[in-house]
Amino acid sequence: MQAINTLKAAKAIAGSLGKPSKMPGLSYGISAKRCKVGAKLATVIGSVCHGCYALKANYSYPSVMQAHETRYASLNHPQWTEAMIYQIAKSNTDYFRWHDAGDLQSLQHLLNIVKIAEALPLVSFWIPTREKGIVHMFNDTFGAFPANLCVRVSATMVDGALPIGFATTSSVHEVEEAQGTTCEAYKNNNKCGDCRKCWDNTVTNVSYKKH
Questions:
Q1: CA–CA dist 180, 159 (Å, integer)
Q2: Phi/psi zone of residue 185: left (φ > 0), alpha (ψ -120 to 50 degrees), beta?
């Protein structure tokens, strides 16, 4: 294997990074159809995944679907972690969101993301996930995540109970009051603005208004 020293080489391995218009920094996503828990929840009325935004609209464009599959196929490449570190470092971003579409695929996938966070301590990373089993395996084996990586385990149901046993979580509210800190992007054309609470490990739960 050769060292990765160009963006072209890094993208050839891991695919390109995303740039969501509604939030700061960059992102990396795979198809929501590849979600393990989420794909099952998408069929459950009242779940946080029912009517998933990442299964429709812009995410259904052929170019987007192809980019998702390219990234998915790259996850097991032996230099995926190195390629991601190179791209993110070269981007000079301060904030990075994992999985604006899709989710964790395995414990090894999460371990690779942790390695990326450790290699880039000046970047704030955020993962929203339904894969609580994978997160439990990591915590039970390795302990806490790096300080610059916020892993938010999502509640399963809208207006439902928060996941138990995790340092940081997220939820969706519709009829009931928000639990913890409310995401106020819905007041700002669904944009983060200057808010960075999702990336903040001191914010224990972020609740998103269903829309």
A1: 12
A2: alpha
pTM (whole model) above 0.90:
yes
Nearest by Cα to 162 from 153, 175, 174, 150:
153
d(CA 124, CA 180): 21
Alpha helix positions (H), the chain: 7-14, 37-41, 62-74, 80-91, 107-119, 132-142
Task: Give the integer Cα–Cα distance in Å for 128 and 30.
Answer: 13
pLDDT digits (tens, 9 = 90+) for 81-136: 999 999 999 999 999 999 988 999 999 999 999 999 999 999 999 999 999 999 99
Report which of 127, 60, 119 is spatially closest to residue 96, judged by C-alpha positions.
127
What the block records as the tokens of 123 is 């970047």
